[in-house]
Amino acid sequence: MNLQKDRALHSLDTLTGLLDFSLLYHLWISGTFLLVTWYMTWLLFRIYTTEVYCFPVQSSFSEDAHQCLPKVLSSKQPLILKYLALQDFALLSQNSPSRRQEVFSLSQPGGHPHNWSALSGECLTILNDLTQKLIAYQEAVSSNGRIKPQSVGSDKRPSSSGSSATSLIEEPTSWQTPRVSMGPKTPGSVFLRASVASPFTPDLGSPFGSPAMKRLTGTLDPSSPWHGSVQSPHVMRRGPKLWTSSLGAESPLNGSPQSGPVPVPSPVAGAQKPSIVSLWIQNRQEQVKNVLAKRVLIMYLFNKLPEASSQALFAESQAHIWALEGLSHLVAASYTEDRFGVVQTTLPDILGTMLTLQEAVDKHFKLPHASSKPARTLSSLVDTSYKTLRFALRASLKTAIYRITTTFGEHLNAVQVSVEHRKKLQQFLEYKE
Predict the structure, then answer these.
(1) Interaxial angle between packed helices 347-365 and 317-337, expressed in degrees from 0 to 180 and rounded to the nearest 10
(2) Pairing with 393, which of 70, 125, 232, 329 sits 20 to 30 Å away (CA)?
(3) Are 126 and 320 in contact (CB under 8 A)?
């Protein structure tokens, strides 16, 4: 190939070549075209995946039962499929009297409201999960993300058994309330920075740390005699062997069969103990971190924003909004369309779930970092609808309760609910909420 350098063009490794206006113009045109193409592709994909799909409420053939709306909602399905099912559930409750009759119908033979039980049960489960998340988050914020330690006069010793020792540091894997008897219930994500709930935070990386504390936190050296499930410090854990002996095999050293486990030679103390210089460097690093952590600008740049956790709680609230709309419209329509009274059996549970969720939502918006009004968002190519979902959920929840109380009126006084919920219902009946 005969490649010759054009002397008339400026090189890009010089300031004159970088300030070439023709090159900047072509770069701007190409970047704009590429960005618009990506945005149009993403927009068409959203339109295609979120297209309304009509699920059959019930089927006459058993091979099509997995495609019915109650089965799709109650079984393990992809998240996009559940969203489409909840959207169809909200739409049929508002605009389709014939499909509502299928929901209120009884099974033949047997006369059981399987359709209504499956749909309402799944919606109540979704709403209860959100309530538990909000309660756990509020308790975590009120306790500053720490579990209260045991009292000094407690005679309970966690080292009496292996299970009791590990129960103090067990971390839940979801936002559901963990079963911890020694303090307030907090979500698992709060313990990402502290693995042991104790009045002090020991320096686990220090060579002078206690072996018992390292054993509780699970940060032991594999060659330590405390590593594993050994309970006594006088028992040496069997280490790996170079030769695997079977029955009748002899030792490669003296030719005699091994009568017991061979103790692993203890490691050299000087190889594990860090030097004074490394300890001094680690201490200086911790001091620098502590000083920088107190600076407001540093914390703003590297920590999460105050409303980030609140927005994450309501990131999937569109499903809860559809569940609230579907339940409330079906309950309101049952006042005139439910001939068998299938909705009346679950009406106390529906009202109790909605009122409990409303109480949790109201408490969440009273937290210091939770804003009470949605921020004004500018039009951009980035989807920011998740930032306003919590406000849409709060409005949909209040509208759903008002829809039920307005339809049934004073008949709700005959529904068996708790005293607190009855007071809340009375406020909705008097339009004071």
Answers:
(1) 140
(2) 70
(3) yes
Contact between 318 and 83 under an 8 Å Cβ cutoff? The reply is yes
Give the torsion sign (CA, 109, 113, 116, 121): negative
Rounded CA separation 185/195 (Å): 15
Model's pTM, two decimal places?
0.63
In 72-128, DSSP assigns E strands to none
Between CA 350 and CA 123 the distance in angstroms is: 9
Q: How many residues does the chain have?
A: 433
Give the CA angle between residues 383, 388, 393 to the nearest 5°: 130
What residues have CB less than 8 Å from 258, skipping those under 6 apart? 245, 251
Q: Which of 43-57, 184-198, 234-248, 303-317 has the highest mean pLDDT?
A: 43-57
The mean pLDDT value for 113-129 works out to 94
**DSSP codes joined into one string, 282-340:** HHHHHHHHHHHHT-HHHHHHHSPPTTHHHHHHTTTHHHHHHHHHHHHHHHHHHHHH-SS
Q: Is residue 289 over pLDDT 60?
A: yes
DSSP string for residues in 115-151: HHHHHHHHHHHHHHHHHHHHHHHHHHHHTTT-PPPPP
